[in-house]
Each structure stands twice: as structure tokens, then as C-alpha cells.
Amino acid sequence: MKKILFIFNPRSGKAQIRNKLMDILDIFAKAGYELLVHVTQRTGDAMEAAAAYGDSVDLVVCSGGDGTLNETISGLMKLDNIPDLGYIPAGSTNDFASSLKISKSMVKAAEAAVFGEPFPIDIGGFCGDRHFVYIAAFGAFTEVSYLTPQDKKNVLGHQAYMLEGMKSLASIQSYKMRIECDECTAGIPLHPVKRGGPCPESGGKKEEMTLEGEFIFGMITNTMSVGGFKGLVTQDVALDDGEFEVLLIRTPKTPLDLTNIINYMFLKEEPNEYVHKFRTRSLKILSEEPIDWVLDGEFGGTRREVNIINLKKRIRIMRKTPKKQ
């Protein structure tokens, strides 16, 4: 008999899984699976369970927010033979589930997990010892995701992030950094930049690139929305192309500069000299002081040197079978 490991966080979102748990387990049983259920109790629990039991089952399904998904995948990445993964979103924003078009209905998501088709996705390798599914970020507002109390997330959803974020506007910190990438396809704009080879802004060719200066924010993503907002990333993102979308914001010199940055980010006004966008398979970030990082909405550690690499199509995640045209 096929075996399934079901890992779920009972506290994610509004603890909605309590009302759907029996329906979900019934779907798994009717699909012919022998059930192994693990209820997470603390941070890191999902990762430990996935690593301990993942190689003895045919399918792993996790339910929770983006943090639970991150932990489960981080555990699976420790295995030699990685089973397919199903995901039942139950968090406040569920950015990655939205990108994968996984239903917000827990029952429909459970059905897709056992009856759908596997879709390969890229995974981010972070400093050789951590992983992220859809975002690694530093700087302004990033602490909001892991410092926002769970009760506020439950009640307000992604509005909670906005409320907490507004409180940190007055305390934006600047970081002096050097960012290097071997192969990147640049967006707009990229000055001042040290370049070698053809300019990617005229033809989209890949090249080496180095950025230096002071920055207030950066994110390396593989998703179509961040914090529930789709305007922060381009909409031609492919989750299996082996590349990240990178966004970096330089330190504004005046309040008007900051306003223009925000207008560009959300209203898509004229390209802004403080905003850098490009795609890359890997990058290295060096900073003069330790910087806090966030991985998939959870605290990812404090580092001065960060190496990030795209692990192409490393995990196969189950989603609803696409309708034939």
C-alpha cells in the first residue's frame, strides 16, 4: 500500500484545518494511502519530521503557512530520494500557493495533492546550509513578517504586515554592500554598475555584474506575489527556469526619492535610478556589517556574507491537473 506523510501546523491562519481535518484525511484514505500524521509543535518540527520520515513514504503533504512549507521542503532537501510534495495552504498570505495556482479551498488542495500532477519547482540554496522556496530578503520591512504577532496575522491577514510595516518607516536602516553575480540578465536600471561583456539592456544577454553602494532593501524571489502583493515582481515569472528575480533598492537621499521609489514599486511609474531589477542563477552578497535575513517569511539568520544559488527543478510539487485545450 502507498504511504503518505501528512505534516500540518494546527496554528496557521485561523486554525481553519480543525474544521477540515477529517475531510482531508478521508480524501487521503480514499486515494489508497496508508496515513502517517505529524502535528507540528514548535519551530523546526516540520523540517525534522520531513527529514526523518520522508524517505519511507511515497508522498509528503504539508499544511500551514509559507513557513511550514519552507520547513517541510528544507527537510526533504536532506534526503537522497525526494518524494513528491503536496501542499494545503492555511497561512495568512500563501504567496507561493498563489503562484502555483493551488486552491485556497483546503479540500480542493488536498484532492490536488493526491490526484493532481507533479510540477517541478526551483529551490533556493542559502549559504550552503539553508533553503528557501520563494523569497530571501533583507532590509526595510522584512522583519515585519516574522515579528508580526500570530494573532494579528490570523485576524487581519496580509493587512497585518502593512500595519506593522508602517511602524518601521521612520527607522529604515542603510547597509553598505557589494553584490556579485556571474550570469545575470538585467532589467532596469543598472547604474552605476561594473560590467564585462555586452550590455544586457540591449538584447538581454547574460553577463557578469557587480553592484556596490548603500542599500535599504533586497529580495531574491521565485514567486508571482510577495506579502499578498503582485505588483512587487514581474508577472512573467517561471517557477522552473533555474533563475531568480532580484530586486534591490538603493538608499534614497531625500524623502521625495523614497516617495518616487514607492510610486515606482506599486504604481509602475517611470523607471527609478534607485531600483535595480535583474535575473540570475546565483549571487554573492558582502556587507560591512551583519544583516538580518528573512527566508519565506521566517527569520533566516544574521550574516555578513551570503551565497545564494538556484537549485533548478529540485522539488516536484503536486497541483491540479491542467485542463486540456
Supply database-style keywords.
26% helix; alpha+beta; 14 strands; ten-stranded antiparallel beta sheet; 325 residues; single chain
- Helicity level: 25-40%
Mean pLDDT across every amino acid position: 81
User: Given the structure, what is the number of helices?
Assistant: 9
- Strand proportion, as a percent range, falls in 35-45%
User: What class would the helix/strand composition place it in?
Assistant: alpha+beta
Q: List segments where confidence is low: pLDDT < 50 over at least 5 consecutive residues.
A: 144-148, 152-169, 188-203
Q: Report the biggest beta sheet as strand number plus sense, adding barrel if it closes.
A: 10 strands, antiparallel
Quick one: overall form? Answer: elongated
DSSP strand tally: 14
Query: Strand-and-helix sequence, N→C?
Result: EHEHEHEHHEEEHHHEEEEHEEE
Q: Distance N terminus to C terminus? A: 34 Å
Our Rg estimate from Cα atoms comes to 20 Å
